[in-house]
Amino acid sequence: MKRTPLYAAHQALGARFVDFGGWEMPVQYTGIIAEHEAVRRRAGLFDVSHMGEIELRGPRALAAAQALTVNDVDRLHDGQAQYSLLCRPGGGVVDDIMVHRLSNERFLLCVNAANIDKDFAWIREHRNGAEAINRSDEFAQLALQGPRATEILAAISTLPLPQIPPFEFRDGLIAGRQALVAHTGYTGEDGWEIYCAPDAARPLWDALLQAGAAFGIQPAGLGARDTLRLERALPLYGHELTDDITPLEAGLGWVVRFKKGDFIGRDVLVRQRAAGVERQLVGMVLTEPGIARQGYSIVHGDDPVGRVTSGTKSPTLGKAIGLGYVASVWKEVGTKLGIDIRGRFVGAEVVPLPFYRRQI
């Protein structure tokens, strides 16, 4: 398995490791609930160096980014980031990504770790005359998330952090190391994602933990990252998003900018928007004891009507929650459903998403 530049740091902190997309990653340190609560109440620090970075470069970079992604890249100014999707001609999702506009001729795409090779091959195939460069080995990435994240980062940064709006990024020094600092995250809390050279990862990791000690910072693993994103109903590729699921089915129609012009998958998505989708991603709260796991059948009465994509016991809400796809007739809030947990049918109710919303 691959390891990030911070593997030794995780070992020193007593992390438990798992195989995640071919990477040996920390799933937890002190415990998933404690790490989850640290992010919600104070701050947590994640190693996300397994994520991939692909750059589109040259005079055709903007045109390539527009054709490849469903969002409107032309709306970005230099130093701005955007959540988007790569789609296939049939409308299914290749990957969900973050697009960073470095300049009119340079766009940095952050892609999911398990999809780096697949995404790079897809982008090269449809680059529309732009240069495509897989820069994943040039970057490590840290995610500092939580209500105290800005204070912690400000203690060791030269950047004017309060002046950087959400979904914008800047180059600057963090603990004396050059980094690209983005006001983005995947937890439902305020926070920052820090892109740096691999040899800068350990000094920055140590500096952030030291600066955050007075604020109650904790290193956090993939376990807490999953419970945090699930409470906020943020999709995880391979669960809520796949090559066979479209953005409209996933409730991500707000990302698709039909008016921008042509892009891969547009024709199918236009037809789907007009006709309506046959299945829809919904949020559910279990009304009886149990945990909804990926792949469990969702039923209405005795009839299967869908499948669970993600589920957990929400540390913040104290309830078992889940995401899943159901036939659209069963998508309305308040619909009573059931989850088949190894032959035991557990009650569930469709609820509004997200499950958790940060109080600003």
Can you describe this structure?
This protein is an alpha+beta fold and 360 residues long. The chain has three domains: 7-49 and 139-231, Probable tRNA modification gtpase trme, domain 1 (Gyrase A, domain 2); 52-135, Aminomethyltransferase beta-barrel domains (Alpha-Beta Plaits, 2-Layer Sandwich), CATH 3.30.70.1400; 278-360, Beta Barrel (Elongation Factor Tu (Ef-tu), domain 3), CATH 2.40.30. It has eight helices and 19 strands. The chain has helices at residues 7-12, 32-41, 61-68, 116-125, 149-154, 201-212, 222-231, 266-275, and strands spanning 16-20, 23-28, 44-47, 52-57, 81-87, 93-103, 106-111, 131-134, 140-145, 169-174, 177-182, 191-196, 218-219, 279-286, 297-300, 303-313, 320-327, 336-341, 344-351. The strands form four sheets. It has a six-stranded mixed sheet. Strand 18 (336-341) and strand 19 form a beta hairpin. Helix 2 (32-41) crosses helix 7. The longest helix is centred in the middle third of the chain and has 12 residues, at 201-212. The protein is globular, with a radius of gyration of 20 Å. It starts with 6 loop residues before the first helix and ends in a 9-residue tail after the last strand.
